[in-house]
Design goal:
1% strand, 448 residues, two-stranded antiparallel sheet, disordered C terminus, 19 helices, mainly alpha
């Protein structure tokens, strides 16, 4: 690598960047012939940092700066490289070498360039770049994923009105990237403050994507080998938890949203009218999204069974439901003086429906005792009371006895226990109460 570095030092910035991609392409192509997953060592990463991200190797040296035109030319060089490289394995390892965070001073330059590269790939529909970005999102800590998501949202939903139409086109070009993008966006916009409510254009686009093809949000799960223990601090396999958070918190978050600015001490009628129309549009979108999420949850039972994961892998983690319920409780207490009874009821109705269908499909693994403890401090809601007090009716093809949630009898992955046979527990009674219809436990209610 030292010989390559000396030759690159004699070139201008753009020529050096193009040349380093050429050398690393040859290097990794050779490596892949002898090992399916070559280790990216320090040498190639340092070359990329010095000649692509312009981070000097010598301490104390001033970093070089590309002007706007040079940066645009560099992005074009990179876009063309990934488009012209026909071997996906080489593309993936070069992309990973370029943009995997290293925990050093080059990471800011790395993330800035990545945001611009993916934004350009969206604009000119460079599918290989989008596919590489989808893999990057899957294996990169979530703190970096939300930075990329924010860069794309800023470019296509905030800076230029109407540019979201360009972002919409990637739905058919790279569904895998769309799935990872949705997961990143739901991690970014958690509705914890007014600033973290998703822009209306973004919300409408995602809702329409999912409504058109609900399986979109299962693409990563369906095409990924499942490990016994999913890594902590990375994006989840599906955006389901984030989408449930959106649907459940939306009525309360929009009610909490600050009032429009005052004009001479009064809210102007035009501002009030525009705000009201936007809120009505968003409420309809969240109702539509809630229906789509329930439909996807109902699909999951078949897919989990096909993968032999039913009752063993919870795609919606109970630990992630705890902060959601706490936030709902806090918002309900905060908004109570504002006569938000309808919003609280709608929020709790949606929570109850999501919990019921998630448990019935095996996506959420918990006992009724866990659920009672979790929801005990929430305001009273009839639908929620039915869910936490009654058993879930399992489908006919499963071996689980009537009246119990999946993981009571089949241990989660990673625990090493043998799935229990119903006969092994003759002392366990089935719940004598009413039963729930599998899959469609309660009618969907897109109310208010």
């Amino acid at each position: 690598m030292s010989d390559i570095r000396h030759s690159l030092l004699r070139r201008d910035a753009l020529s050096a960047a193009k040349e380093v991609l050429y050398h690393l392409d040859i290097y990794f192509s050779s490596q892949l012939q002898s090992a399916p997953l070559p280790i990216v060592d320090k040498g190639p990463v340092e070359l990329l940092e010095e000649f692509v991200f312009q981070v000097p190797k010598e301490r104390g040296a001033q970093p070089k700066r590309l002007n706007s035109l040079q940066e645009l030319q560099l992005l074009e060089i990179m876009c063309n490289y990934f488009q012209e490289q026909t071997k996906d394995s080489v593309r993936q390892i070069i992309f990973s070498s370029l943009f995997s965070p290293q925990g050093n001073k080059a990471d800011d330059s790395r993330m800035n360039l990545l945001g611009k590269l993916v934004s350009m790939a969206v604009a000119v529909c460079r599918i290989p770049v989008l596919e590489c970005a989808a893999s990057w999102l899957q294996r990169t800590p979530v703190v970096y994923c939300v930075r990329l998501a924010r860069a794309l949202v800023d470019d296509y939903c905030c800076l230029v009105p109407g540019s979201v139409q360009t972002l919409k086109q990637i739905f058919s070009a790279s569904p895998r990237f769309c799935c990872q993008f949705i997961t990143s966006v739901t991690a970014l916009y958690d509705l914890s403050s007014d600033d973290l409510i998703p822009p209306l254009d973004l919300l409408e686009m995602i809702v329409n994507w999912i409504f058109e093809d609900p399986r979109l949000i299962l693409i990563t799960f369906l095409n990924t080998p499942i490990a016994a223990n999913l890594p902590i601090g990375f994006l989840e396999l599906t955006p389901l938890t984030g989408l449930i958070r959106w649907c459940v918190k939306a009525p309360l978050a929009y009610k909490r949203r600050k009032k429009p600015p005052l004009s001479n001490g009064h809210v102007t009628s035009k501002v009030s009218q525009d705000s009201g129309e936007a809120d009505r549009d968003s409420h309809l979108l969240y109702s539509k999204l809630h229906l789509s999420v329930l439909q996807v949850l109902m699909m999951l039972q078949v897919h989990l069974t096909e993968k032999n994961l039913y009752g063993r892998l919870g795609l919606i983690l109970f630990d992630h439901m705890v902060p959601l319920v706490e936030e709902i409780n806090r918002l309900a207490d905060e908004l109570n003086p504002l006569n938000a009874s309808q919003e609280i009821e709608l929020s709790l109705d949606r929570l109850a429906q999501a919990l019921q269908v998630a448990m019935a499909s095996g996506a959420l693994l918990c006992t009724r005792d866990d659920l009672r403890t979790l929801c005990s401090r929430l305001p009273h809601n009839n639908l929620l009371q039915l869910v936490i007090s009654g058993p879930v009716q399992q489908s006919p093809h499963t071996a689980l006895p009537h009246g119990f949630y999946p993981h009571i009898h089949t241990p989660p992955l990673g625990y090493g226990a043998v799935p229990a046979h119903p006969a092994a527990h003759p002392a366990l009674p089935t719940h004598p109460g009413h039963t729930f219809i599998s899959g469609v436990a309660f009618p969907f209610r897109p109310i208010r």
